[in-house]
Design goal:
By secondary structure, the protein is an alpha+beta fold. 31% of the residues lie in helices and 19% in strands. The protein has a single domain, classed as B-lactam Antibiotic, Isopenicillin N Synthase, Chain (Jelly Rolls). The model has no long low-confidence stretch (mean pLDDT 93).
């Protein structure tokens, strides 16, 4: 059957014993076959979706000088504002501006690992205190949704519900990107974000209603994943694919350049474990293992077991201006 639209799952069904088993079967099947779906029934009030889009609009409407005052080149932790064209995917420029916001923590006083440098404070514009308030609330709410989903995945794969929980128990390194895709400056702009698979565990994305641009690669080709109001687009990352020996699918996706006179907001939340954690692997029941795609050794070699090693290398690649300023000795050696 040709896929033309992502399926929709209702997380509230997982809370009812009468529907929980069917929900888990659908969750397992969809993320085995497609790796992407829409999520309703998450329990987040509609007003909070409106609020996060509103505060994003207000941030990007700030004078350029205020945004550049919190540019990520001020932060060895890769936090803060990235000007349009300042991030790369597969080495090519992404046509978007954004702010990266992670857990608010003090820097590691004596770093031992390269990824220790990712721990640190965020940067916020002084004239918009609502940004911090809204994103801290969003971070907490979506962390709960992510944990609920991981519990359901574990149960659907024949594991205890808390199978993945240990990796997230302390100092989880989830983070928010608030992204604006402006009108492309010329025909030379070929990507809002280039083709990629997310490297972490799972992503909860809220794209601005009434816009378009996100596309997902299926066996039948590219399909649009247009926004549904107050509904998340969810996909798994490579960590979860590897942990299930390829049974769950981390799917290639992209964002097309925004058309003439158009503008869109998109807010992904990356639910990831602690920097020093390993995502526990899953010993699949025999009937599921028989349908596992497997993971090549090259993929395993490219994806470090410790999450922070992947996260730090990803930042070096995607934000070369920050990498060259703070970590010039690592740019040539590891990227």
């Amino acid at each position: 059957m040709t896929i033309t639209q992502l399926p929709i799952l209702d997380l509230s069904l997982a809370e009812d014993p009468a529907t929980a088993e069917a929900f888990r079967a659908d969750l397992r099947r969809i993320t085995h076959e497609i790796g992407f779906f829409y999520l309703t029934g998450h329990g987040i009030p509609d007003a909070d979706f409106t609020r996060i889009i509103d505060v994003a609009d207000r941030f990007f409407a700030l004078p350029e000088a205020e945004k550049l005052a919190i540019e990520n080149t001020n932060s060895p932790h890769f936090r803060g504002y990235t000007r349009t064209g300042g991030e790369r995917t597969q080495g090519r420029v992404d046509w978007r501006e954004q702010i990266d916001i992670g857990p608010e923590r003090a820097p590691v006083a004596e770093p031992v690992n390269d990824f220790d440098h990712l721990t640190g404070p965020n940067q916020y514009p002084e004239s918009l205190p609502e940004l911090r308030e809204a994103t801290e609330s969003w971070h907490g709410q979506l962390s709960e949704v992510g944990a609920r989903l991981l519990e359901q995945w574990a149960l659907s794969l024949g594991q205890a519900g808390d199978h993945f929980a240990s990796a997230f128990a302390e100092d989880a390194e989830s983070f928010i990107k608030i992204v604006r895709y402006p009108e492309a400056e010329s025909e030379s702009v070929t990507q809002g974000v280039g083709e990629h698979r997310d490297a972490g565990t799972l992503t909860l994305l809220y794209p601005q209603p009434g816009t378009t641009g996100l596309q997902v690669l299926t066996d039948d080709g590219w399909i649009d994943a247009d926004p549904i109001e107050n509904t998340f687009v969810v996909n798994i990352g490579k960590l979860l694919e590897v942990a299930t020996n390829g049974y769950l699918k981390a799917t290639v996706h992209r964002v097309l350049p925004t058309g003439p006179g158009q503008d869109r907001i998109s807010i992904p939340f990356f639910f990831n474990p602690a920097l020093n954690a390993r995502l526990p692997e899953v010993e699949l029941p025999a009937e599921l293992a028989a349908d596992s795609r497997g993971v090549t050794q090259d993929e395993r070699d490219a994806l470090h077991a410790v999450y922070g090693e992947n996260a730090f290398l990803s930042r070096l690649r995607s934000h070369p201006n920050v990498a060259e300023k703070f970590y010039p000795e690592l740019v040539g050696a590891q990227v």
